[in-house]
Amino acid sequence: DAMVIQNPRYQVTQFGKPVTLSCSQTLNHNVMYWYQQKSSQAPKLLFHYYDKDFNNEADTPDNFQSRRPNTSFCFLDIRSPGLGDAAMYLCATSRTRDSRGHEQFFGPGTRLTVL
Amino acid sequence: AQSVTQLGSHVSVSEGALVLLRCNYSSSVPPYLFWYVQYPNQGLQLLLKYTSAATLVKGINGFEAEFKKSETSFHLTKPSAHMSDAAEYFCAVSSPSGGYNKLIFGAGTRLAVHP
Fold first, then answer.
1. Residue A59 touches partner B, C-beta closer than 8 Å
2. From the CA atom positions of chain B, what is the Rg in Å?
3. Does B44 touch chain A (CB under 8 A)?
4. If contacts are CB pairs under 8 Å, which of residues 59-88 in chain B contact chain A?
5. DSSP states of B17-34
6. Å from A30 to nearest chain B CA?
7. Is residue A38 a contact partner of residue A87, using CB atoms and an 8 Å limit?
8. pLDDT (tens digit, 9 = 90+) per residue, B4-57?
């Protein structure tokens, strides 16, 4: 089945130690998104890639970076995780950036713990 | 700017009872509205969407939602709750932003179903 895969499902890191979260998709979608979801809150869009074009949200901290080496893979890098970065990180894909017409498909998420 | 407000962060119903989850929207353009469900430690799954066609929208798992422009509402209902419906439900609106349409999520409503 076509799907969005996130690895690992659970990640523990230390305060200030860089961490990378991975997302892959078999849907061949043009757009890949990264959302941050803190406990009992709505998902918050961090940034997205439209093909190779990176689009950062205005309020995303510089501590968060992303890479998309090819259509299938996208990475979220947190350069110096703080305690406030502990959250569920959701990857999503869609055919286009028009959320009116094209559904976003979400992966299962990676739960990040910062010690 | 477009936004959604979900009334009630927690809703509890008995198995077999009506489920009603409330969502009100604010939009300067005709809205595109969505309901997503999130089971524990999983990603979001689209339940249904309103795209300016029929005002009563049927989704998966027996859920439906009715778009009421006069009330700026898009409430989610299911006639008879099942234990498997216990999850977090997010209402979302498509919002124009920087040349594309992104999803803006509400804060979510956690549905508990008890025997």
1. no
2. 14
3. yes
4. none
5. S-EEEEEEEE-SS---EE
6. 14
7. yes
8. 999 999 999 999 999 999 999 998 778 889 999 999 888 899 999 998 778 899
How many CB atoms are closer than 10 A to CB A88?
21
Q: SS3 for chain A, per residue? A: CCCEEEECCEEEECCCCCEEEEEEECCCCCEEEEEEECCCCCCEEEEEEECCEEEECCCCCCCEEEECCCCCEEEEEECCCCHHHCEEEEEEEECCCECCCCCCEECCCEEEEEC
> From the list B32, B43, B110, which residue is nearest A109 (CB)?
B43
Lookup: tokens for B25: 């929207």
Residues near A9 by beta carbon (within 8 Å), at least 6 away in sequence: A108, A109, A110, A111, B41
Rounded Cα distance, B65 and B50, in Å: 8
- Per-residue DSSP letter, B9: S
A53-86: pLDDT as tens digits: 999 999 999 999 999 999 999 999 999 999 999 9
CB atoms within 10 A of CB A57: 15
Specify the pLDDT at position B30: 81
Please enumerate in sequence order all residues whose Cβ is within 8 A of that of B81, keeping only pairs 6 or more positions apart, or say none: B13, B14, B15, B16, B17, B18, B19, B111, B113
Phi, psi of B30 (to 5 degrees): -55, 125
